[in-house]
Amino acid sequence: MNLRRITLIVLVVFWVIVILAYIVGFVVLKDAKII
Amino acid sequence: MTSVKTHMRNNTGWMLVVLLCLIPIMLWYRISPMSIRFASMYATIISMGQLTGLVGATLFAISLILSGRFRMTEGLFGGMNRVYIAHHIIGGIGFILLMVHPLILLYTRAMVSYNKAALFLLPGQNVSDTLGILSLLSLMALLILTYYVKLHYHIWKLLHKFLGASFFLGFLHMFVTQSDVARDMPIRAYMLGIGAIALCVYVYRTILGRWLVRKRPCTVTSLVPLAGDMIQVGLQPHQPIKNCEPGQFIFLSFNSRSFSPEWHPFSISSINPDGTIEVIIKQLGDYTKSIAEICLGMNASIEGPYGRFYHDAKTPKQIWIAGGVGITPFLSMAKRLNTETAVDLYYVVHDQQEAVGSGVLRELVQVHENFRVCIYDTTEQKARITAKTIQETSGDLSGHDIYICGPPPMMNSLKNQFKSLRIPGDRIHTEEFSMS
């Protein structure tokens, strides 16, 4: 697997996590604490 | 022995890169004991976040330093083509680590509150995080455009130049953040040092390169149209170029409105006794499509020469493989061939009519009894050249050094094939810089 492909995978994972963090943090849970 | 020396030197650059990455890890390690650094899941994740940031920033700095085209780095990696390959790999790994860095820290925020985690990714919360986010977003945008979008070369080059600005924002983020770098003097000094060197190289090469980088003015003194949309351009430097070796390449820029001002690499096809050098230009990209505009007396500038493709060649038995315009470094090498060296040159072309320099090669074959040329016409043979074909033609390849210059897929394929024939990797030499 070449570096371009690995970088692309990390990029996609990055944005999936970031978007999920926004959705969970701001839309679903707002300021709910888990601890 | 020569091969071992070459192998050692080629690895020196990479060993130095590893060392430069280990130094911040060691400095970070001594600040706080491991029992605290990895005391809990939370502490371990924080530590991983810090390490990815430190190593990622160091790699990014090294990548910028390598883009400076210094003779020292060329010596460390065994050729400018290898320096640029290292620049690309190191930059890519640094970028991956810099993307992982905020994700790990995001996880630590999410362990406290999801809302806090989401806020962590929004710019404007505080100066330090905003600088980091802006650095990473600009880095992503630029790398997506330069890695994955097919752009005109001059646009690609322009965008690539802005990577230094992303680096600058990232380094500001590192020093503003309340972290070990801000608190501990040795690690701060190290990161500041390597960052300052990288920024100086960036300013020297990218911002002020037009004035600071040494260029040699020259004039176009001969133009010979060749088959296959190629042209041989003779250049007379206004001052003689010393230490110019066969197989090297130069960066060339034509001082004409017909050409965009960026620099392109071209292999030297001939180094003449009167000081002129010749390059062969093929119409391949946006820039080289303008070759019809080149005229006698046109002024140009040369940077270089660079490259160590043939620098350490002392082995008496050699195989040269050229693909298309990849013949250019071999033409200059063949003209300086000594009588003790036995060379089999395989010149791969789509059509024999396009075999540029075949006349010169035929003359050289008459002079050197140990020099053999095989023009391999892929249309006629209805197959690509393979390492096995070469082995069948030249015999036992053990003890041979193999030099390949041609399109990257051809070079990669042949390299792998020779390795599968148990030819050691340090005996296979490729030149990636002559395909402009």
Q: In terms of topology, how is this protein built?
A:
The complex is a heterodimer of chains A (35) and B (436).
Chain A: H1 3-28
Chain B: H1 2-31, H2 34-37, H3 41-66, H4 71-77, H5 80-110, H6 114-120, H7 127-148, H8 153-161, H9 163-176, H10 180-183, H11 185-207, H12 209-212, E1 216-226, E2 230-237, E3 249-254, E4 264-271, E5 277-282, E6 299-306, E7 317-323, H13 328-335, E8 342-349, H14 358-367, E9 371-377, H15 378-381, H16 387-394, E10 401-405, H17 408-420, E11 428-430
Parallel strand pairs in B: 7-8, 7-10, 8-9, 10-11
Antiparallel strand pairs in B: 1-2, 1-6, 2-5, 3-4, 3-6, 4-5
Please tell me about this protein's structure.
The complex is a heterodimer of chains A (35) and B (436). With 35 residues, chain A is an all-alpha fold. Chain A contains 1 helix and no strands. Chain A has one helix at residues 3-28. The longest helix of chain A has 26 residues, at 3-28. The N and C termini of chain A lie far apart (40 Å). The mean pLDDT of chain A is 78. With 436 residues, chain B is of the alpha/beta class. Helices cover 51% and strands 18% of the residues of chain B. Chain B has a 6-stranded antiparallel barrel. In chain B, strands 9-8-7-10-11 form a 5-stranded parallel β-sheet, with helices on both faces. In chain B, helix 7 runs antiparallel to helix 8. Chain B is elongated. The model of chain B has no long low-confidence stretch (mean pLDDT 87). The interface between A and B is medium-sized, with 24 and 26 residues.
